[in-house]
């Protein structure tokens, strides 16, 4: 078993190392599932086989020591061997390294796996597409149950939950490459006609209320951008617009349901198909979103982002957000 366990741990380490070096495209959810399964098997084997076997060996040792003491007393000999026997008993009961690194880690690994799969999952913001709401490097939590629970790895929905609403900040699997997670704001739900023309958002023919705010200073770009407050379904959030960027959507791909969209020099108008959502970043002129690659299927939804648990750039940003 030590050799087999060493090989299994080496395989996990090789996978993680190749992922870290960029040689393969890793899947953390699958890695956690495999680790939970393997350590769970060791945990069951430890509880029902290896631990009883060690306890039985310790009991035999104590019986043999007691028999020797009784024989020595019968012969009139005096010997105090309790300390060596106790030390030997502790060595017999001690969990070997290959069980310590498998069965011993199972409760922690399976707890993380279940928490991450069904309650909350941490993410790190990789880009500036959601500035000013979320900054690059922000560490956030994503609610995994509001929109319905999904089986890990298989991602099959097992409860319906509440559908995403306009204004929700959502993490989802990027439709052109589902192994990559994206984060954007829902601006259109199934059946909506979403128009983004001349940098103004309109839903079903009704302009979304917007008001000007003081300019936002982007510390990375070292410049100010016009900032606005937009209200979707009664919830306000901030957004940026770059006056130097054209309203026209350049470089839109040939995505599924593209015939639901009309592009012009003013922007784009799309009718959201059933079971899909239209996503946009709050940094409107620096966001690769539904305007370019299309609609997000409900099956791609991961969860609703709701809390910044760490922001190394500004600690006062920690907390919930809209």
UniProtKB/TrEMBL annotation:
<feature type="active site">
    <location>
        <position position="184"/>
    </location>
</feature>
<dbReference type="GO" id="GO:0006465">
    <property type="term" value="P:signal peptide processing"/>
</dbReference>
<protein>
    <recommendedName>
        <fullName>Signal peptidase I</fullName>
        <ecNumber>3.4.21.89</ecNumber>
    </recommendedName>
</protein>
<feature type="transmembrane region" description="Helical">
    <location>
        <begin position="98"/>
        <end position="119"/>
    </location>
</feature>
<dbReference type="GO" id="GO:0016020">
    <property type="term" value="C:membrane"/>
</dbReference>
<feature type="transmembrane region" description="Helical">
    <location>
        <begin position="28"/>
        <end position="45"/>
    </location>
</feature>
<dbReference type="InterPro" id="IPR036286">
    <property type="entry name" value="LexA/Signal_pep-like_sf"/>
</dbReference>
<dbReference type="Pfam" id="PF10502">
    <property type="entry name" value="Peptidase_S26"/>
</dbReference>
<dbReference type="GO" id="GO:0004252">
    <property type="term" value="F:serine-type endopeptidase activity"/>
</dbReference>
<keyword id="KW-1133">Transmembrane helix</keyword>
<dbReference type="InterPro" id="IPR000223">
    <property type="entry name" value="Pept_S26A_signal_pept_1"/>
</dbReference>
<dbReference type="GO" id="GO:0009003">
    <property type="term" value="F:signal peptidase activity"/>
</dbReference>
<keyword id="KW-0472">Membrane</keyword>
<keyword id="KW-0645">Protease</keyword>
<dbReference type="InterPro" id="IPR019533">
    <property type="entry name" value="Peptidase_S26"/>
</dbReference>
<dbReference type="InterPro" id="IPR019757">
    <property type="entry name" value="Pept_S26A_signal_pept_1_Lys-AS"/>
</dbReference>
<comment type="similarity">
    <text>Belongs to the peptidase S26 family.</text>
</comment>
<keyword id="KW-0812">Transmembrane</keyword>
<keyword id="KW-0378">Hydrolase</keyword>
<feature type="domain" description="Peptidase S26">
    <location>
        <begin position="99"/>
        <end position="310"/>
    </location>
</feature>
<feature type="active site">
    <location>
        <position position="129"/>
    </location>
</feature>
<dbReference type="InterPro" id="IPR019756">
    <property type="entry name" value="Pept_S26A_signal_pept_1_Ser-AS"/>
</dbReference>
<dbReference type="InterPro" id="IPR019758">
    <property type="entry name" value="Pept_S26A_signal_pept_1_CS"/>
</dbReference>
